[in-house]
Amino acid sequence: MARLEQVIINIVDIFLEYADDEGKKSQLNIEELKKVLEQEIQSPELKDKINPDDIGEAMGMLDKNHDGEVNFREFCRCVCVLAKCYYQKKTGRGGKKGKGKEQEGEQED
Length: 109
What we know:
Elements: H1 3-19, H2 30-40, H3 44-47, H4 55-62, H5 72-91, H6 104-108
Keywords: Calcium, Metal-binding
Region (Disordered): 90-109
Domain EF-hand: 50-85
């Protein structure tokens, strides 16, 4: 199986596995989200970006429809943010935008 294909399958399988624990079957509540982040993120580069004490704050940012749970679209947004953090760490590119002007690395993303 191709690597990207495996990544996509893993993202869907992980979401479904944890979303099935408690609450609505197709969504992650705060405890399920915390469990996903604690158990499925092991590398120091990404683990440093996640503070278990701030899961509530992360939930607030991810939960765009304010229903108290994270749906698959919102979960994908979380995975994207973590991927961007890893990309920035690995390449030294990206980061915050300057006022009125993008950094060189962000134009190439």
